[in-house]
Design goal:
- A two-stranded antiparallel ribbon has the order 1-2.
- The chain is built from ten helices and two strands, in the order ααααααβααβαα.
- It is 73% helix and 1% strand.
- The chain is mainly alpha-helical.
Length: 294
């Protein structure tokens, strides 16, 4: 046995990794594909876009805290939980702030500098703000109402969370030829769930609507990606929603009508896009058939 063999065996006995064995035995680090390459220090430098992603995650966390505090305070004081619109309004405003951060982090990353972990931070923040927070809101909305079995409410909440996780994982791995989103983007899905919660009382029909939103997120229906003027429209839509929610939560005159109109438009938009895509694909199939027949 050679001296290098003895050194390599000693490294494994003390818990050394592949890099330790490489250094002891004289092998090159490049021979081990799992070894980090490049200046590792740069991976820990946060960019401006990363700060927006962290702001997104913080907004989702605070939204969950607001909803949890509303349930705890009501149960301690009255022994029965009745959702307070002000708490729901505050939570939704926080989610919209997170959505705004999510919209801008990509723009900032393209305009300035993106860090090595920017994409991972963005996905993790989206899971908190647009996966876990809406799912928790569904539980608070329907779980304490007594109108539905808790199992149905938990199923709907879990479907939103899991669909969001799958949606984000697929987004990182699959790219469409058109460059559009495959499946309903998770921020839009979260806002649609919030709209259902704000508009309707817990029922089997609304639970079915929430599960339908989860299905749209993991479907193969392509949604247009906000670019240029469309991105400006999306941003304006978010700001208008924030203003309407603030007026509604403050119980201003006409606030109920504003939030009803905004939530209805959100649900209608999400429902109309799949119908438009299906009609477009049907038209394409007809054109191909006519060309083949000709």
């Amino acid at each position: 046995m050679t001296t290098s063999d003895v050194g390599a065996g000693a490294a494994w006995q003390v818990g050394g990794d592949d890099a330790d064995v490489a250094r002891v035995s004289g092998a090159r680090v490049a021979d081990f594909p799992d070894e980090p390459r490049g200046p590792v220090g740069k991976a820990f430098r946060l960019s401006a876009a990363d700060s927006l992603s962290l702001g997104n995650a913080l907004s989702g966390f605070l939204a969950v805290c607001v909803l949890a505090w509303s349930a705890i305070s009501d149960l301690q004081s009255a022994g029965k939980f009745e959702p307070d619109p002000r708490f729901f309004g505050t939570a939704v405003v926080l989610l919209l702030i997170g959505a705004t951060c999510d919209l801008f982090d990509g723009l900032v990353a393209r305009r300035f500098r993106a860090s090595a972990m920017g994409a991972e931070l963005d996905n993790l923040a989206d899971v908190i703000s647009f996966g876990f927070a809406p799912a928790f809101m569904v539980v608070i909305w329907g779980g304490f109402s007594g109108k539905l079995p808790l199992l149905f409410v938990l199923f709907a909440a879990a479907s939103i969370l899991l669909a969001g996780v799958v949606r984000l994982a697929r987004f990182a791995c699959v790219k469409t030829k058109s460059g559009d989103f495959m499946g309903l983007p998770i921020p839009m899905g979260a806002m649609t769930v919030v709209s259902i919660v704000l508009l309707f009382q817990p029922s089997y029909l609304t639970i079915a609507g929430i599960v339908a939103v989860a299905w749209l997120m993991v479907s193969r229906i392509e949604y247009p990606k906000p670019k240029g003027n469309l991105a400006a429209v999306v941003l304006a839509w978010m700001l208008i929603n924030v203003a309407c929610l603030i007026l509604w939560a403050a119980r201003a005159t006409g606030g109920d009508q504003l939030i009803t109109v905004g939530a209805t438009m959100q649900i209608a938009m999400v429902s109309a896009i799949p119908l438009r895509v299906l009609m477009f694909k049907k038209q394409q199939r007809r054109e191909r058939r006519s060309e083949n027949a000709g």
